[in-house]
Design goal:
The structure is a single chain. This protein is of the alpha+beta class. It is 28% helix and 31% strand. It is built from 4 helices and 9 strands. Strands 1, 2, 3, 4, 5, 6, 7, 8 and 9 form a 9-stranded mixed β-sheet that branches. The relative contact order is 0.16. Bound molecules: coenzyme A (COA). Coenzyme A binds at residues 32, 35-36, 96-98, 103-109, 130, 132, 136, 138-139, 141-142, 145.
């Protein structure tokens, strides 16, 4: 079940319609979204539509997408979550994005580490994986820092704007 997560500096909570402006400031940035599997948002209306589309999903209580908010000032600086959560909850894919003005401050690592804990302890996942474009060295660095290891799998195709780009799978296993 979805729940809010509080870390040292972050408050992870449901995304809400009032987040549209904050979200568009990174989801509409071509550079920041270069390695995301979804297309860059072209307008704030697109972001508003996206947020509207996910609202009913929270009601299922099986939708795991968090807004990343700074505890110190309530600023929404990114999102993170699980997709492809398997019915038997054996494994799920993790995704994350932080606003460009807040990079390299440890927020990405802090958010991902808290999701790993939630995924293993609350969802009882056995494995969490991330599909990362091989050029996305920063995300690979973050994944390794959070103890993800490269899966023994060949590079595979991850489509972006209908074009196939090489991606690698990194994963972390629940050893409990
Ligand atoms: C990947 C991303 C979430 C990292 O967020 P972040 O908050 O900057 O991450 P952290 O501050 O926790 O840093 C993680 C590591 O990456 C390094 N790093 C972060 N930004 C960097 C940059 N611009 N240049 C070089 N290294 C960088 C950090 O130094 C840290 O490594 P270290 O502790 O060994 O020094 C962020 O760059 C982002 O949103 N990128 C665009 C979206 C994306 O690619 N998402 C992942 C899709 S798989």
């Amino acid at each position: 079940m979805f729940k809010e997560i509080v870390t040292e500096r972050l408050h992870l909570r449901k995304i809400k319609s009032l987040d549209a402006e904050s979200m568009f400031s990174y989801a509409g940035n071509k550079e920041t979204t270069k390695y995301m599997a979804w297309p860059t948002h072209n307008s704030i209306e697109e972001t508003q539509e996206y947020i509207k589309s996910i609202m009913p999903l929270y009601k299922t209580k099986k939708y795991y997408d968090w807004a990343i908010e700074l505890k110190e000032n309530g600023k929404m600086i990114g999102t993170c979550g699980f997709v492809n959560v398997q019915a038997n909850k054996e494994f799920a894919e993790i995704g994350y994005i932080i606003h460009q003005d807040y990079h390299k401050k440890g927020y990405g690592t802090e958010a991902v580490q808290s999701l790993i804990e939630f995924g293993f302890k609350t969802l009882r996942l056995k494995k969490i994986y991330a599909r990362i474009y091989k050029e996305n060295k920063i995300s690979i660095r973050l994944a390794k820092k959070c103890k993800f290891t490269l899966e023994v799998q060949p590079e595979h195709c991850l489509a972006k704007d209908h074009i196939c780009f090489g991606a690698l799978s990194y994963s972390i296993k629940n050893l409990e």
